[in-house]
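REQUEST FORM: STRUCTURE PREDICTION
Request ID: SP-0412
Submitted by: Lab K.M.
Chain count: 1
Length (residues): 137
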Amino acid sequence: MDPSNFVNSVTGIVVVAIVFAVPIISVIAALAIVLSVVNRRHKERMKMIEQGMMPPPPRKQKGSYNGLLITGAIFSAFGLALVAGELASRGNDFHGGFIFGFIGLALLACFAIIRMARKNEPADDYHPTPPPLPPQP
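STATUS: Completed
RESULT:
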């Protein structure tokens, strides 16, 4: 084996390993963060129960739909840019631009539908929980 081929092959292996390592490590880090948060909440609830307090019921969280707006706008703009690029180059292959454009429009439609549905929902009444009772001797 020629030494230059060996160096090139090792470099290629390192580059491929780095490219695939970044998403794998980021997924593992995100999972570790989520698990640590869940574990911390569980420990807090267990400590409250051990001390005789009633832990508050879990909150019902509504997800934010603003991500749909942002993602839809990005996809629509990307699709429009691809279509404009094809028109400027006098090509006639608009498939990529139309795909991204319609995905963006679908996300924007989802945003509008969810926004209208949330406006029509009744407001949640705030019911504060009573303070926990002290431990009984």
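NOTES: The chain has a mean pLDDT of 79.
Reviewed by: T.R.
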